[in-house]
Every structure is written in C-alpha cells, then in structure tokens.
Amino acid sequence: MRLYLASTSPARLAVLRAAGIEPVCFSPEVDEEAEVVAREATIGRPLTAPELTEYLGRLKAEDVVRRHGHEIDGIVLGGDSAFLLDGEILGKPHEPSVALARAKQHRGQTGVLHSGHWVIDHTGGAVRGALGAVDTASVTLSADVSDAELEAYVATGEPLELAGGFAIDGLAGAFIERIEGAPSCVIGLSLPALRRLVVGLGHEYTALWGADAH
C-alpha cells in the first residue's frame, strides 16, 4: 500500500524512510495564515496548538487529494507541528534573531511539541474515510548551553525553518537534555500516531513498508 505525503519537509520524509516507508510526496498549496484567521473567526476564539496542527494537517491532505486525486491510490498523510513554550505557540522562526531569542527562552526549560496528523483513505482512487490525531512530546533544553553555542547553532541556519527552532536529529541533538514522548513526534510526525490512524481506517500499518515509490 502506498503512502502519499502532503508535505515536502525533509524531516518528515526522513522519519518515514527510516521507518521503512518510501512515500510519494506532493507539495500542498495552502495559505496557512489566511486559513487560520478564517477558522478562528468562524469559531470565535484562537485555535489551541493541538487544534491548529490537526487543522492545518487536514487542509494539506485535502488539498493534495483535491488536486492530485486522479494520481492517488493509497493513504494520504498531512501534518503540521507547533511548539508551545510558556503558553505561547512558536512556529518557524525564519529570522536568525528570532531563532536566537527563542533558543535563549527555551534554555533550561521544557516546551511541548504538538504534531498534528490527518490521514485520508484514498485506496482504489476514491475517498473512503479520514481520521485525525495529535501527538505531543516534551523537550527540555539543557540549562548549561552557552550563548556562544546557541549563536553558533543559529548561524548554521538549521533552526530557521523548524517549529520551535531546533532539530533533535541534527546539530541541536547535543543541546537537548530530555525528551518525553515519541522521538519521531519531535522530528516532524509521530509514527505511533500514524500507525493508529492507518489501523483505524481498517488497514495494516505494515502494508506501508517497502513501497517502491517513484
């Protein structure tokens, strides 16, 4: 069974490949900021971090099905991540100054990474069902990491396009003191959550292993 990933995230792709899954990747075309504003206006309040990540994951998966459904026979996965620290949702920092400020704020503290997932069963070339789930993992940044170390990390550019501004599977691995939860959740998508969703749609998770996608 083929998995179609509604993302071009290298981190999500790496997680899946390490787990024996070779997905077909599509780039979703979703105006995330506009969609969130519209959704919050509809419900009359800000989205929580879990709601935000699952909602954006759903929009991405549905967009890929809408535009590429004629090419898809399998499971479509959309996902999004957000890091919550001191009650504030932190997305991708984009700018070095923002990444550095967040790293200093995170130092010695524990934040929570929310990873939202939306899975659409499109086996046989038609939508047969859909399920969503959010997994969380807590991440503690070592208190003894120096300013110089954080500045050097930000200078590499690695954290600029990562939710929360760090990568446990990259250069920041030496700065992370403790993780509670699925490590894959922190990297970009939760493999345990994906397994539960696939099973919930009536399929065997192991059927995704070894797909030879081109």
Would you kindly provide a brief summary of this structure?
By secondary structure, this protein is of the alpha/beta class. It has helices spanning 10-18, 32-43, 49-68, 96-106, 147-155, 183-187, 191-200; strands at 2-5, 24-25, 74-85, 88-90, 110-122, 129-141, 176-180. Strands 1, 2, 3, 4, 5, 6 and 7 form a seven-stranded mixed beta sheet that branches.
Kindly describe this structure.
The protein has helices at 10-18, 32-43, 49-68, 96-106, 147-155, 183-187, 191-200, and strands at residues 2-5, 24-25, 74-85, 88-90, 110-122, 129-141, 176-180. Strand 1 (2-5), helix 1 and strand 2 (24-25) form a beta-alpha-beta unit. It has a single domain (2-208), classed as Maf protein (Alpha-Beta Complex), CATH 3.90.950. By secondary structure, it is an alpha/beta fold. It starts with a strand and ends in a 14-residue tail after the last helix. Strands 1, 2, 3, 4, 5, 6 and 7 form a seven-stranded mixed sheet that branches. Helix 4 (96-106) packs antiparallel against helix 5. It has seven helices and seven strands; from the N terminus they run E-H-E-H-H-E-E-H-E-E-H-E-H-H.
- Based on DSSP secondary structure assignment, what is the total number of beta strands? 7
How many distinct folded domains? 1
Number of helices: 7
Helix proportion range: 25-40%
The fold-level CATH name is Maf protein
Q: Give unreliable regions as ranges.
A: none
- The ordered string of helix (H) and strand (E) elements is EHEHHEEHEEHEHH
Q: Identify the CATH class.
A: Alpha Beta
The major pleated sheet works out as:
7 strands, mixed
Mean model confidence by pLDDT:
93
How far apart the termini lie comes to 14 Å
Q: SS-based structural class?
A: alpha/beta
Strand content: 15-25%
